[in-house]
Design goal:
The structure is a homodimer.
Chain A (H helix, E strand, L loop, with lengths): L7 H31 L4 H21 L7 H11 L12 H13 L3
Helix pairs in contact in A: 1-2, 3-4
């Protein structure tokens, strides 16, 4: 089985994993936003929050690309960042799981 | 006295009025941000907060233009929006105060 072919079952698992990672990342951004707003005192703080949100949104928009041709790469980034757990991948072919983990390892080099 | 000429005293008053309006507007944006973040539940809410902050920042950046050639216009907008109070203008020439109020009236038509 190649990492290019996604069976119907794998597509379901991938979609669930993708959505789970997205939910975790949104929750993390919300938590950080609440923390920043809690400590906000000046106009500078306010505009830094705007910078923070814009950067997070740009990254999220770019990163969450659900094309099967990109999914190994997307998953490897999300796994490396801690938003995708290895358990989310259970049921995918071993070579896909390996590819996600291996590509993720490259970010650490 | 024309609305084009600003005496040294008027420049001090104008700067203080400008800064006071800016402070009030920033405080209002912060209050609205706290309210929105308090009620935030979904990714949609999160990105609407980003939209809100970006739009407010764009408007603030555009609006707070401290060039004496623009100041009557800037003050009239701020007065119309409630961020600049008539009391802030005390000490400016009568024609400047009238121009600020009159130009502000135009927004209501």
């Amino acid at each position: 089985m190649s990492t290019d072919h996604w069976s119907a079952t794998e597509k379901k698992i991938a979609r669930r994993a993708f959505d789970a990672a997205y939910g975790r990342e949104i929750a993390a951004i919300m938590e950080e936003l609440r923390r920043k707003v809690g400590g906000m005192k000046s106009a500078k703080d306010l505009w830094q929050i705007e910078d923070f949100l814009r950067e997070r949104r740009d990254e999220v928009d770019w990163k969450y690309d659900y094309r099967y041709s990109q999914l190994i790469y997307v998953f490897s980034i999300l796994h490396h960042q801690g938003f995708l757990l290895e358990a989310d991948l259970a049921g995918l072919s071993a070579d896909k799981i390996e590819a996600v983990k291996h590509t993720g390892d490259c970010f650490r080099r």
